[in-house]
């Protein structure tokens, strides 16, 4: 594949490293001379020490044959402008780092897939771990909805019940769905079915429309999570 990476900061450099390992054709556009030289000396890729907001530079980078452009600049406005140029030039996949969440809708309207800054994601993950240590891993879906992993404690209201009974007894509300179960002594996840009995020590993958609200984590026996 032919990738154009705009920006050779920490995120851009990681992208170049990943793309280069898998033998992709990578072109980097970096306006800072020092950064451009560092990438050129370290990786086997074409580096253009120039301004990606100029259409002719994107054309020089091979926009006519590019499979994707990823913009990793430090300002959302600049990223959006680069992505709009890329879209006009017919690059099929255009992705950008997103620094301000309130700009996501603007990127979406312009047909650009915007991904949160890794620094913001890391900060959110650290904060979540400190605030709710019961949550092993999580993935935002849309709005407040999340998919997360959590272990079942001995005190959990759901422990010892089938999912069907827990649902009928309103232990599990309508906006929460147990998707998969990994047994304490097992390795492979099992699809959660109505007849699946939940036991202490099970690790569950859960979808919740209200995220990891304390009322949701209570179901699995974590009553002391932050409220």
TrEMBL record:
A Pfam family per the record: TrkA_N
Classification via InterPro entries: K_uptake_TrkA (IPR006036), NAD(P)-bd_dom_sf (IPR036291), RCK_C (IPR006037), RCK_C_sf (IPR036721), RCK_N (IPR003148), Trk_Ktr_HKT_K-transport (IPR050721)
GO molecular function: potassium ion transmembrane transporter activity
Domain RCK N-terminal: 1-116
GO cellular component, one term: plasma membrane
Keyword Glycoprotein applies: no
Keyword tags: Ion transport, NAD, Potassium, Potassium transport, Transport
Positions of the RCK C-terminal domain: 133-222
Residue spans crossing the bilayer: none
Presence of the UniProt keyword Transport in the record: yes
Role description: Part of a potassium transport system.
Protein's name according to its UniProt entry: Trk system potassium uptake protein TrkA
């Amino acid at each position: 594949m032919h990738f154009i990476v705009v920006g050779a900061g920490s995120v851009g450099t990681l992208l170049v490293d990943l793309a280069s390992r898998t033998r992709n054709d990578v072109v980097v556009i970096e306006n800072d001379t020092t950064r451009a030289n560092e990438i050129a000396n370290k990786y086997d890729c074409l580096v253009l020490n120039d301004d990606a907001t100029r259409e002719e530079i994107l054309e020089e980078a091979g926009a006519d044959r590019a499979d994707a452009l990823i913009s990793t600049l430090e300002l959302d406005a600049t990223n959006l402008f680069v992505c709009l140029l890329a879209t006009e030039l017919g690059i099929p996949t255009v992705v950008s780092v997103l620094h301000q969440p309130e700009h996501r809708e603007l990127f979406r309207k312009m047909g650009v897939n915007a991904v949160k800054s890794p620094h913001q994601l890391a900060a959110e993950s650290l904060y979540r771990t400190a605030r709710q240590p019961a949550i092993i891993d999580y993935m935002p879906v849309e709005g407040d909805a999340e998919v997360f992993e959590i272990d079942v404690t001995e005190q959990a209201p759901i422990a010892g019940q089938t999912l069907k009974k827990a649902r009928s007894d309103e232990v599990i509300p309508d906006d929460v769905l147990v998707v998969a179960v990994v047994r304490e002594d097992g390795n492979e996840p099992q699809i959660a079915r109505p007849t699946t009995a939940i036991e202490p020590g099970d690790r569950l993958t859960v979808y919740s429309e209200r995220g990891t609200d304390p009322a949701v984590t209570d179901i699995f026996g974590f009553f002391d999570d932050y409220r």
